[in-house]
Amino acid sequence: xxxxxxxxxYKGIEMLALEQxxxxxxxxxxxxxxxxxxxxxxxxxxxxxxxxxxxxxxxEDAEFNVGQDEWLILRAGRRHFGTGAISSNMxxxxxxxxxxxxxxxxxxxxxxxxxxxxxxxxxxxxxxxxLLDERRDRGHFxxxxxxxxxxxxxxxxxxxxxxxxxxxxxxxxxxxxxxYVRQQISNPALTTSGVGRELGYxxxxxxxxxxxxxxxxxxxxxxxxxxxxxxxxxxxEDLTVERVGLAVGLPNVRYFRRLFVRIVGVTxxxxxxxxxxxxxx
Length: 281
Description:
Blueprint: E1 22-29, E2 40-41, E3 45-52, E4 55-59, E5 62-66, E6 70-74, E7 79-82, E8 91-98, H1 104-112, E9 114-116, H2 120-135, H3 140-157, H4 168-183, H5 192-199, H6 203-214, H7 218-236, H8 241-247, H9 253-264, H10 268-276
Antiparallel strand pairs: 1-8, 2-7, 3-6, 3-8, 4-5, 4-7, 6-9
């Protein structure tokens, strides 16, 4: 673990043909450390989440001015450098990792490269506990889990791009679908055709409208809503994986586990254990 943003010791790491994202280091850039961000090329990706002030920085020809609760991915093998003075109160969390841009864990955020983190408190919790576990030398599993969760928080929390042609009526229809899904999330038989039937819409047309407005299919939205509800239960209640799966409409434990790993990056048991360690006795 490092508590400044000098990772010069990692410049010689070569990009490997990896099957997953692999964490390298995590830390904080403290206020007043630098007046201008360093000019350098790293062999690792760097995720930055600013907590206070603004960070003026560029990656080759692209310039960014990253503010509070905004994130930036600096890509491996590309020059990045400061473009202006850093305010004395500016500080940020950072995490460096190895990956390929084709890896699904980083593909979406690398394409976007920067954005806003609406759930700033949650990202701060993840970074703080990531740093704490590194200090306690919890091992690679802990680092893998926290990095995966951070990347997924950014990916999930980035607001969907809405089609410009979406009408007010389309948005009302989408709101109906979302509300119905939330009410029926424990129903394992929840499907696009079932939603359409209950709300009185043609399922094919409903699916097209929903995707145009939200950027996801109804099935994808149901999956994300189930897993989001499952995460909340693991965080707030002491329930088994089986009981949580039943509560969110995923009674098949093997399928629940596969879907949870795909969306969150760790297994339900691993996610549950992370929160059990921090509950008071």
